[in-house]
Amino acid sequence: MNTSTSGLIGISDSGIKGNAHVPASALVYEDIRNRIISLALLPETTLVRAELAESFKVSQSPVREAIMRLEQDGLVVSYPQSRTVVTKIDEARIREEHFLRVAAECEVVRQLAEIKESPAVTKAKGLLKMQEALVGDIEQIDLFKQLDDSFHAALFNGVNQSNLHLQITARSGHLARVRTLDLPRAGKMVSVLDGHKAVIEAIQSGDGATAVTEMRHHLSGTMERLPLIIEENRSLFT
Fold first, then answer.
1. DSSP H helical ranges for the chain
2. Domain residue ranges of the chain, discontinuous segments joined by +
3. Global pTM?
4. Domain 91-236: which topology?
5. Fold adopted by 24-86
6. pLDDT tens, position by position, for the chain (238 residues)?
């Protein structure tokens, strides 16, 4: 079991500070969550609240609030004496999160196809061009993933469902960790890009049924490989 977060929280010497718009607890939450999703913090890593507070240069209150949110997301579990542990990836949770994401995103693209052209589609196309420039560059995989997330967020924004996207993202931590494991696979970046292009083409043509089919297919790749991903990374799963 990993027993400490020392050296893993890569923040500046000045720590983090909240403001009127973003409280410190939200910044702590986002930082820890991103590290769990990226597997910089592996399953069974112990998070010590006092160490986290010192690393972030905040009191333990924001850390406590952040950990409570992470527990709600199913990414950590807390025990007495201020010990918190990163959860293992759970297959049942993965399938639930995938089901929710498919249902929501298919409806999103169906509605966008009724509009055809919109600022959201224009933004998504711009993000596609940025992703295309990164395909094949494994050193840029984190940026590629950020652009992938932004692409899907843009589609939700296009039907005025940005809050729904945030809720789904917060509840998809187990699926997100599997995506982290799958993205470096040879050909995966190309597959993601092709899926995005097919969805946009269907939306712009006004073909809602095809847009739904393409989105469903786009979201299925990692799930089809799930048994192999689990087999190759057995220690990370329940």
1. 24-37, 49-56, 60-72, 91-115, 119-132, 141-158, 162-170, 173-182, 188-204, 208-218, 221-224, 226-232
2. 24-86, 91-236
3. 0.88
4. Four Helix Bundle (Hemerythrin (Met), subunit A) (1.20.120)
5. Arc Repressor Mutant, subunit A (1.10.10)
6. 555 554 444 444 445 555 557 789 999 999 999 999 999 999 999 999 889 999 999 999 999 999 999 999 999 999 877 689 999 999 999 999 999 999 999 999 999 999 988 999 999 999 999 999 999 888 899 999 999 999 999 999 999 999 999 999 999 999 999 999 999 998 999 999 999 999 999 999 999 999 999 999 999 999 999 999 999 999 999 9
